[in-house]
Amino acid sequence: MVRFENVGMRYGLGPEVLRDISFSLEKGSFHLLTGPSGSGKTSLLKLIYLAERPSRGAISMFGRDIASTPRDELPALRHRIGVVFQDFRLLDHLTVFENVSLPRLVTGEDESHFRAEVEELLLWVGLGNRLNAKPATLSGGEKQRVAIARAVVAKPELLLADEPTGNVDPEIGARIIRLFIELNRLGTCVMIATHDQRILERLPSTRIFRLGEGRLTTGVAHDHLLSEVKRA
To answer: Hey, which bits of the chain come out as E strands?
Structure first.
């Protein structure tokens, strides 16, 4: 589904923030991405959801070589990806229901086909009574849950989530992770960038990518937890 081969990335003329990154994501796999602040996690996610281009190396998405894919064909690839952004990126003039419905509406689907599904999803993330609210009236945690619902509503082939539990209480955080697990069981490849130790504890056998000084190493969440305990 996703393949990186010796990928490097820099912003402008600055130093590389990612160096010699190589990995692959298979359909139906589940991954965690960790690393200290400034290690390049958000930059890596941007490359995966095609918001940035690498400075070197090769990236293929859904069997397509990105370097040779015309720019006007990239939006069709992006529609196959659900993304939970740290800054939410909600549209202020739309209601909660309308924001979450956007991925279905842009494909031309009639609202009658998905209204009940969107309402059920918002109920699951604790926003069943906020369907008609505008983003300006929401707390940070509520905005984050709207962004998560929007990312998963179209059942994307690939889901990327940047600190999805950062602004929510433990109960809602557990619900969100269960939602991601269920989506994964339906065939979606999931990658979560997180500092949240609770996620690592809930997913102890999950494959983990760790970024440090722009380089990527791999392992499993259980081993990562053990190393954190030893350092403590």
So the answer is: 2-10, 16-25, 30-34, 56-61, 64-65, 81-84, 158-162, 189-193, 207-212, 215-220
| CA dist., res. 49 & res. 81, Å (int) | 7
The mean per-residue pLDDT over the stretch 97-110 comes to 92
**Structural domain containing residue 120:** 90-155
Number of structural domains, the chain?
1
Please indicate, yes or no, if residue 126 is contained in any of the structural domains: yes
pLDDT of residue 123: 93
pLDDT confidence of residue 106: 87
Q: Categorize the per-residue pLDDT at 150 as very low, low, confident or very high, splitting at 50, 70 and 90.
A: very high
- Residue 114 in domain: yes
Q: Is residue 107 part of a domain?
A: yes
Neighbours of 13 (CB within 10 A): 5
In this prediction the pTM is 0.88
- Diameter of the chain measured on Cα atoms: 54
Both tokens assigned to 23 = 């990995």
Q: Is residue 105 situated within a structural domain?
A: yes
CA angle 158, 161, 163 (to 5 degrees): 165
